[in-house]
Design brief:
By secondary structure, the protein is an alpha/beta fold. Among the domains are: 79-175, Glutamyl-tRNA Synthetase, Domain 3 (Glutamyl-tRNA Synthetase, domain 3), CATH 3.90.800.10; 318-357; 366-439, Arc Repressor Mutant, subunit A (Orthogonal Bundle), CATH 1.10.10. It has helices at residues 16-31, 50-63, 77-89, 100-112, 128-136, 184-193, 206-218, 249-254, 259-268, 281-287, 302-314, 318-325, 333-339, 349-352, 354-357, 369-378, 388-400, 405-416, 424-431, 433-439; strands at 3-6, 35-40, 69-72, 93-96, 142-145, 151-156, 160-165, 173-175, 198-202, 225-229, 232-233, 298-299. It has a 3-stranded parallel sheet. Strand 9 (198-202), helix 7 and strand 10 (225-229) form a beta-alpha-beta unit. Helix 6 crosses helix 7 (206-218). The longest helix has 16 residues, at 16-31. A motif ('HIGH' region) lies at residues 8-18. One of its GO terms (molecular function) is glutamate-tRNA ligase activity. It is an enzyme of class 6 (ligase). A motif ('KMSKS' region) lies at residues 239-243.
Length: 441
């Protein structure tokens, strides 16, 4: 069975860049009849909060994602302790006592000598006596994973054949001095324990994959299949970042964007699929194949989002809109079908519905007043239909000699108070004769 996971850190509100892998994992799981795991990477106790974790669940639900399983790394420490002890016993995890300042000086020295600034494994040369002396001085070890130092090869579902040479990398620190875990070990342990079959994430993790594959093998776990997608950037080409305060998913929600518009922009941008108004996440899942994902950056265009949001609203059926329309006092399908073409955001219906229900502030130019008085006199009797507008304007044209803009614009401004809007032939029957008389001079 296909099992994927999305693993956010609850250290802030998620943004479009975070939503991209969340959605791509969801599509892959749905396309393959698989299982979707939401894993909260909350081992950073200083920055992770339950409030942010709860916010992530809210944002996912708004986007249309319901995880099949939720796990929190903060509740799984015993698993990581057991894996740590196994790696120590196998000689793959070893204690190091250098301070950050000492390591920084070593890296600077290596660069000055034209060498790569990787860890020199000096800690492996320490004797038991050396370690005891350092600990007596108050030093506590951090623990590094001893890499094989070899080309690690894997087939990426998006990028194809990949090779990461761990010989060019420092042995990664897996356990901090205070005993807490960095991302890498808990991630691998969880992937093994949860039976993750596919790891779908951003291409900035490709270099980490070599290290993680070695840890999978050292722990005797099955290595999942990897897929590294291109990263979503903002309009200026900068990556989205919690640290830099990138606009969050909740910000877009508060600004009135449709969740489907955000989901489409976060996932389809940077693929060969067109940015268009898909009906649902399931529709995207059925069409989006990893072969369609570009190897170049995926640049988010806010103008394109605005246009897409409008197109989604223009195509929205009354049945879909009805539960939300109640808050705006709109319960007429004909009103929705007429006004939706003018919406940019759903809340715009509050203003547009006033064209039907009022109040409308007529705009009447002095030079048009006499014409509009005549229009009032020629306003047809009810019942009205779609033919009423044509009958009225034909009569006005004959009586006044006006045509084109001079005929139609004064009527629009008097009846709606604005230059733009829906076709008056469709609006007129919804407004009714009494309201039209009230708006004419």
């Amino acid at each position: 069975m296909t099992i994927v996971r999305w693993a956010p850190s609850p250290t802030g509100r998620i943004h479009l860049g975070n939503a991209r892998p969340a959605l791509l994992n969801w599509f892959f799981a749905r396309r393959n009849g698989g299982k979707y795991v939401l894993r909260m990477d909350d081992t950073d106790l200083a920055r992770s909060t339950r409030e942010f974790a709860d916010g992530i669940e809210v944002d996912l639900a708004w986007l249309g994602i319901t995880p099949d399983l939720l796990v929190r790394q903060s509740e799984r420490t015993a698993l990581y302790d057991e894996a740590r002890d196994r790696l120590i016993a196998a000689g793959r995890l070893y204690p190091c006592y250098e301070t950050e300042d000492e390591l920084s000086r070593r890296r600077a020295r290596a660069r000055a000598m034209g060498k790569p600034p990787i860890y020199d494994r000096a800690a492996l040369k320490l004797t038991d006596e050396d370690r005891a002396k350092l600990e007596a001085e108050g030093r506590k070890p951090h623990w590094r994973f001893k890499l094989d130092g070899r080309p690690v090869q894997f087939t990426d579902l998006i990028k194809g054949s990949q090779t990461v040479n761990t010989a060019s990398m420092s042995d990664p620190v897996l356990v901090r001095e205070d005993g807490s875990y960095l991302y890498t070990l808990p991630s691998v342990v969880d992937d093994i324990d949860l039976g993750i079959t596919h790891v779908i994430r951003g291409e900035d993790h490709v270099s980490n994959t070599g290290t993680q594959i070695e840890i999978f093998e050292a722990l005797g776990g099955s290595v999942p299949i990897f897929a590294h997608h291109n990263l979503l950037t903002d309009a200026e080409g900068q990556g989205f970042s919690k640290r830099l305060g990138s606009q969050s998913i909740s910000d877009f929600r508060d600004e009135g964007y449709e969740s489907l518009a955000i989901a489409i922009m976060a996932s389809i941008t940077g693929t060969s699929l067109p940015i268009e108004a898909y009906g649902s996440l399931e529709d995207i899942a059925a069409k989006l194949d990893f072969a369609m994902i570009s190897h170049g950056a995926a640049r988010f265009d806010p103008v394109e989002l605005d246009n897409l949001n409008a197109r989604i609203l223009h195509a929205m059926s009354f049945a879909e809109a009805a539960p939300r329309l109640a808050a705006y006092g709109v319960d007429n399908e004909a009103v929705w079908n007429l006004l939706r073409e003018n919406l940019r955001k759903f809340a715009d219906i509050a203003e547009w519905s006033k064209l039907v229900t009022g109040p409308v502030e007529p705009v009447i130019a002095d030079e048009d007043r006499e014409f509009l008085v005549a229009a009032r006199e020629l306003l047809p009797a009810e019942p009205w239909s779609l033919e009423t507008w044509g009958q009225w304007t034909d009569a006005l044209k004959s009586a006044s000699g006006r045509k084109g803009k001079r005929l139609f614009l004064p009527l629009r401004m008097a009846l709606t108070g604005r230059h733009d809007g829906p076709e008056l032939k469709s609006l007129l029957p919804l407004v009714g004769r009494k309201a039209c008389l009230d708006r004419l001079p």
